[in-house]
Amino acid sequence: MGKQKRQKTRERGDLTPFKSAKQVTAQAPAILLSDPRYPHNMGAAIRAASCFGLKQVWVTGTRVADKVWEGKRIPREERMKGFSDVDIILNQRPFDHFPSDVTPVAIELLSGSENLSTFVHPENPVYVFGPEDGGVPSVARALCHRRVFIPTFHCTNLGAAVYLVLYDRLLKRQQLGLEPILTIEEQLAGEYRPALGLGWPVDDDPEFEATR
Ligand SMILES: C[S@@+](CC[C@H](N)C(=O)[O-])C[C@H]1O[C@@H](n2cnc3c(N)ncnc32)[C@H](O)[C@@H]1O
């Protein structure tokens, strides 16, 4: 490796929020973002994952990674300490790493999709989202067992779509008695996630810019 390349790798290594697939054990439930365009939307997905207790956000493509590396700064939401419980894994073939019992679910507003309102979330879902400027790529869609749309009149922002799906999952799990329904005191105390040792992020002032 040349001196320049070594230097660049070192810089990226210092700044990167990404892990490689080798550094983690793939586990569902998880989020998969297909070649997202904007770091702030990836940040929102990470925040959503953390809010709803998911541990992994997988990212394909390099557009967002290039922006993070070029900008030499990690967007605020990814840096926030409260969200360090979520691994961000940059990998071009995520399904090579998941066990066979996961259920990939394409989230897309396309004919043939099931309505989220009546969707029964599988036990080990990997929710696959398309980028801001397109849908779920056909290669990824072909691997998905289910296809779901969020009942909105237009496509929502990518980050918002992640929140809606995860909230729907939580609500249905609570209705089935699989998750507790907490009082505000219990929720704020973070008692529902003692194993993670999480409360609220101390510095909660994210720069969230929903552009698309
Ligand atoms: C901003 S949208 C993509 C818009 C893009 N111009 C298109 O027409 O496909 C980004 C992603 O969010 C998800 N999404 C947003 N709104 C959705 C909805 N109402 N139903 C299902 N998926 C949605 C999809 O995964 C989509 O690929």
Can you walk through the features of this model?
It is a single chain. With 212 residues, the chain is an alpha/beta fold. It is 33% helix and 14% strand. The protein has an 8-stranded parallel β-sheet with strand order 1-4-3-2-7-5-8-6. β2, α2 (39-51) and β3 (56-59) form a beta-alpha-beta unit. The N and C termini lie far apart (39 Å). Mean pLDDT is 84; it is low at 194-212. The structure holds S-adenosylmethionine.
| Overall mean pLDDT | 84
Radius of gyration: 17 Å
The geometry reads as: globular
Fill in the CATH topology: Alpha/beta knot
Named once each, the bound ligands are: S-adenosylmethionine
String of helices and strands: HEEHEHHEEEEHEHH
- Domains counted in the coordinates: how many? 1
How much of the sequence lies in strands comes to: 5-15%
Runs in which pLDDT lies below 50 for 5 or more consecutive residues are: 194-212
Helix content: 25-40%
Give me the CATH superfamily. Answer: SPOUT methyltransferase, trefoil knot domain
Multimerization state: single chain
Task: Please give the largest β-sheet.
Answer: 8 strands, parallel
CATH class: Alpha Beta
Strand order of the largest sheet: 1-4-3-2-7-5-8-6
How would you describe this structure in keywords?
single chain; 212 residues; alpha/beta; 7 helices; 14% strand; globular; binds S-adenosylmethionine
